[in-house]
Amino acid sequence: MTLATPERYALMLDSARRGGYAYPAINVTSTQTLNAAIQGFAQAESDGIIQISVGGADYLSGQRLHDRVVGSIAFARFASEVISGYKGVTLALHTDHCAPQYLDGWVRPLLAYEREQVARGEEPLFLSHMWDGSTLPLEENLRIARELLSESQAAHTILEIEVGAVGGEEDGQSAEMDERLYSSPSDGIKVAQALGLGEEGRYMAAFTFGNVHGAYKPGVVKLRPELLGRIQSATAEAAAQGGLPERTARAAAEAPDSKPFLLVFHGGSGSRPEEIAQAVTHGIVKMNVDTDTQYAFTRGVADHVFTNYDKVLKVDGEVGAKSEYDPRAWGRRAEDSMAARVVQACQQLGSAGRALK
User: Fold this and answer.
1) What CA–CA distance (Å, rounded) separates 240 from 211?
2) What residues form DSSP beta bridges with 168?
3) Is 97 flagged in the annotation as binding?
4) 145 within a domain of the structure (yes/no)
5) What is the CATH number of the domain that holds 253?
6) 168-170 and 173-175: which strand pairing?
7) So what's the pLDDT on residue 223?
8) Partner of 252 for a Cys bridge, out of 59, 99, 235, 260, CB 3.0 to 4.6 A?
């Protein structure tokens, strides 16, 4: 297993788009959940993406420090050391869902740090960063995205953007489950006009098609994956008919299967397998997985505690069993449980067994 370089990360994303599969992007909050994600990718023989949110970065710095930049840098340093001990798959590190209020105190300092790394001839700590301007008017969202795209190029990283609102709640950010959950084909054209289609710098786009953060019973989430195909087609058609700048039109013409965008799927929990599969056919190359792996990790802890109740607790004045309340005992169960869910995600998205050689 190796940590991706910018060149290999680009190859990963291009291979997924051409091959019709996607990578799970697993959110982690600790070294234990990081190790569980690595274990899962290794077992699935899949390349993949490991990411931290603003809350995860804060938590990684410690409950008293609350420094997102320190937590992010410490996480990336630890991850690079651990990942280097594995062989066979490639993993990329990513920061997830940076809302406007966190931009100047989190992602912009990280990009500045990475530009300094690149200037010294080093690889950047992270391979991509997400700008979540979905709460802003589209024009303002894209204006900031264009600035960040330039900064990302200098840092040898890839930008991820979001257009439209994802419902539910994540890290204190919430959105209602209504018509704002659905991007439009015209949104895709506006994104291409503002950011190009890779010729101005590489980026991934999360257009919303009913996505919701969190866990819901089947039927609550109303996905319209066909909307992604309409966005791709409308943008490709606009390029062919002169509705985009010449350089952007050439980039669109070079995209495989008339899919000019590298797409991202947010909020996949509660989605039916056939909906996920259909979304992937429209150019999804990255799907965020968080709620389900959180549950899998905690379920492993719960199973251990309930099975060994009188051993993990000193019940009725007894002494318990050190070997069972040792954090490594329940930690291994939790990591195995989460790793199994990562394997499932790789299989569902088609990346299992397709690690780059």
Assistant:
1) 30
2) 175
3) yes
4) yes
5) 3.20.20.70
6) antiparallel
7) 86
8) 260
Within 8 A by CB and 6+ apart from 85, the residues are 1
CA 133 distance to own-chain centroid? 16
Q: Alpha-carbon distance 194 to 145, whole Å?
A: 9
**Residue 52 is encoded by which pair of tokens?**
């931290």
Q: Catalytic positions, please?
A: 96
Residue 54 lies in a domain: yes
- 156 phi-psi bin (left φ>0, alpha ψ -120 to 50, beta other): left
pLDDT digits (tens, 9 = 90+) for 201-257: 999 999 998 877 555 455 556 789 999 999 999 999 999 999 999 999 999 999 999
Residues 299-312 have pLDDT tens digits of 999 999 999 999 99
C-alpha closest to that of 48 among 105, 89, 7, 98: 89
**Which range of residues forms the domain containing residue 185?**
6-349
In a domain, 357, yes or no: no
Domain count, the chain: 1
Does 164 appear as a known binding residue?
no
Asked if pLDDT for residue 16 goes beyond 50, the answer is: yes
Q: Which two tokens stand for residue 164?
A: 């439209």
Q: Tokens standing for 229?
A: 């195909």
Q: Is 88 known as a binding-site position?
A: no
Report yes or no on 356 lying in a domain: no
How far is the C-alpha of 40 from the C-alpha of 342, rounded, in Å?
Answer: 5
Higher pLDDT, 186 or 1: 186
Q: Is 162 annotated as a binding residue?
A: yes
Across the chain, mean pLDDT equals 92
Query: Of 1, 7, 11, 82, whose CA–CA distance to 41 is shortest?
Result: 1
In tens, the pLDDT along 32-56 reads: 999 999 999 999 999 999 999 999 9
E strands of the chain, at which residues?
Answer: 2-3, 23-27, 48-53, 90-98, 128-131, 158-163, 168-170, 173-175, 203-207, 263-265, 284-289
